[in-house]
């Protein structure tokens, strides 16, 4: 399940970054391209693709800086919503 | 009353006298060119909604020397209400900011029925158009007089972007952008005031300031009022950003950060923030920013957060964000950044 999520996230990010084979822990913010448009698109992508609501408190760089970080964040949010 | 941002013109028996496909030698309606020019100088745009042969009508507009005035002309056999809507979408302005000029009551009624917010004008009244209160924008600045060229450059860019094969970053690199950050001069103040009133999509606090207030900040030793401009190989975008920083002894507070939504995908909001972070770090002060959420500025909040700001307090709808200055950002490689002092 998590592998599927990573593949979806990686596929989405590859539209923005001129990088072949984005690795799990490649820091996309170090790679340079962060416009307001990209930032809000990335947040909307995660919300819609995984059916989440992202609160202001979740909007931390550490949750979005790599494929692995987004995947971990999504997994955490999904399990929290199941638990509650 | 809503100020008109774009006038959409019928052609046959409106811009020119006669029907082009019946008489290839049609002449301009008297007064039309003056109206086009007068409104253009006020920063009001023009477009076309005509049922006509596209190529023949465009050739005639060229021949008459007025083709350059019209952005995204809609010349086809469809409904005028669809054409008017297409113009609003292409320019990315609200349909309530359009006026529509046509000699035929049927066409005006058809547009009015579908879009009651559009100001419909009889071609017979064309010479009275510049005198209408809706045709007097609150501000006429150097940027508004240039507006048609700004939008035309945007149209070319959009076309280039749509036809671009690679990634977004590669496209940005191909633009050869030059971003300038400079203290506001007196001549910038009207545009600065216009930006605080016009731009609400990417305004971090939504505060608006009058010309006099901005002038006071400009000359106050306790404040920095910065204006940002952008150009690329398609031309200038004009002055597209504004920041107001209150300089306290051990902390600076960003009271206002705004960017025109036309440059939302260019990464310049992050660059302006990066500049402020670097300046604060160099001055050895803390950097705070106020944020007031609206239903349209979430992307600005995300920009702050992704630039390394953290929310510290919320009081009466105003959040305060703070950057810890631990990681001071550089400027992106795909853009030349000029900081004037």
List key phrases describing it.
heterodimer; A: 84 residues; mainly alpha; Non-ribosomal Peptide Synthetase Peptidyl Carrier Protein, Chain A; 4 helices; B: 341 residues; alpha/beta; Rossmann fold; Aminopeptidase; 2 domains; eight-stranded mixed beta sheet; five-stranded parallel beta sheet; 11 helices; 15 strands
Summarize the structure in words:
The complex is a heterodimer of chains A (84) and B (341). By secondary structure, chain A is mainly alpha-helical. Chain A has one domain: Non-ribosomal Peptide Synthetase Peptidyl Carrier Protein, Chain A (Orthogonal Bundle). Helix content of chain A is 58%, strand content 0%. In chain A, helix 1 crosses helix 4. Chain A is globular. In chain A, 25% of the residues are buried. The mean pLDDT of chain A is 85. In chain B, helix 3 crosses helix 4. Chain B is elongated. In chain B, 40% of the residues are buried. In chain B, strand 9 and strand 10 form a beta hairpin. Chain B folds into two domains: 130 residues, HAD superfamily/HAD-like (Rossmann fold, 3-Layer(aba) Sandwich); 198 residues, Aminopeptidase (3-Layer(aba) Sandwich), CATH 3.40.630. Chain B has 341 residues and is an alpha/beta fold. The interface between A and B is medium-sized, with 23 and 30 residues.
CATH class of chain A: Mainly Alpha
**How many strand units of chain A?**
0
> In CATH terms, what is the architecture of chain A?
Orthogonal Bundle
Q: Largest chain-chain contact?
A: A-B, 23 and 30 residues
| Cα separation of the termini of chain A | 21 Å
Number of domains of chain A: 1
Task: Report mean pLDDT of chain A, rounded to a whole number.
Answer: 85
CATH fold label of chain A: Non-ribosomal Peptide Synthetase Peptidyl Carrier Protein, Chain A
Can you say what the CATH homologous superfamily of chain A is? Answer: ACP-like
Strand content of chain B: 25-35%
> How many distinct folded domains of chain B?
2
The biggest sheet of chain A, with number of strands, parallel, antiparallel or mixed sense and barrel status, is: none
- Globally, the shape of chain B reads elongated
Shape of chain A: globular
> Considering DSSP H and I runs of 4 or more, what fraction of the residues of chain B is helical?
25-40%
Report the end-to-end length of chain B measured between terminal Cα atoms: 40 Å
By DSSP (H or I, 4+ residues per run), the number of helices of chain A equals 4
Total E-strand runs of chain B: 15
Structural class of chain A: mainly alpha
For the sheet with most strands of chain B, the description reads: 8 strands, mixed
């Amino acid at each position: 399940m998590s592998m599927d999520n990573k593949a979806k996230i990686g596929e989405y990010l590859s539209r923005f970054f001129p990088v072949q084979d984005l690795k799990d822990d490649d820091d996309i913010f170090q790679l340079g391209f962060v416009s307001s448009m990209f930032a809000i698109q990335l947040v909307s992508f995660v919300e819609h693709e995984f059916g989440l609501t992202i609160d202001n408190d979740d909007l931390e760089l550490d949750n979005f800086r790599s494929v692995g970080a987004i995947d971990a964040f999504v997994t955490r949010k999904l399990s929290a919503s199941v638990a509650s | 009353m809503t100020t008109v941002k774009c006038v959409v013109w019928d052609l046959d028996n409106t811009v020119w006298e006669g029907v082009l496909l019946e008489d290839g030698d049609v002449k301009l309606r008297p007064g039309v060119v003056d109206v086009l020019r007068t409104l253009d100088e006020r920063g009001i745009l023009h477009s076309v909604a005509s049922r006509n042969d596209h190529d023949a009508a465009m050739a005639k507009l060229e021949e008459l020397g007025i083709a350059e005035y019209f952005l995204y002309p809609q010349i086809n056999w469809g409904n005028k209400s669809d054409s008017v809507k297409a113009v609003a979408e292409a320019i990315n302005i609200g349909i309530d900011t359009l006026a529509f000029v046509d000699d035929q009551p049927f066409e005006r009624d058809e547009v009015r029925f579908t879009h009651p917010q559009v100001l419909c004008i009889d071609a017979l009244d064309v010479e009275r158009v510049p005198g209408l209160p809706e045709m007097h924008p609150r501000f006429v600045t150097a940027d508004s007089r240039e507006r048609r060229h700004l939008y035309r450059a945007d149209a070319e860019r959009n076309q280039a972007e749509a036809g671009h094969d690679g990634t977004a970053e590669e496209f940005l690199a191909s633009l050869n952008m030059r971003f300038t950050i400079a203290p506001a001069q007196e001549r910038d103040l009207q545009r600065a005031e216009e930006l605080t009133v016009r731009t609400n999509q990417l305004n971090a606090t939504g505060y608006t300031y009058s010309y006099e207030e901005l002038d006071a900040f400009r000359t106050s030793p306790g404040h920095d009022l910065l204006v940002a401009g952008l150009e690329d190989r398609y031309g200038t975008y004009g002055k597209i950003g504004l920041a107001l920083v209150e300089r306290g002894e051990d902390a600076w507070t960003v009271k206002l950060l705004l960017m025109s939504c036309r440059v939302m995908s260019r990464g310049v909001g992050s660059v302006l923030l990066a500049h402020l972070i670097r300046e604060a770090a160099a001055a050895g002060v803390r950097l705070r920013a106020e944020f007031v959420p609206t239903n349209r500025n979430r992307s600005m909040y995300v920009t702050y957060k992704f630039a390394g700001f953290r929310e510290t307090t919320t009081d009466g709808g105003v959040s305060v964000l703070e950057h810890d200055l631990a990681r001071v950002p550089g400027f992106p490689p795909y853009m030349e950044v000029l900081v004037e002092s």
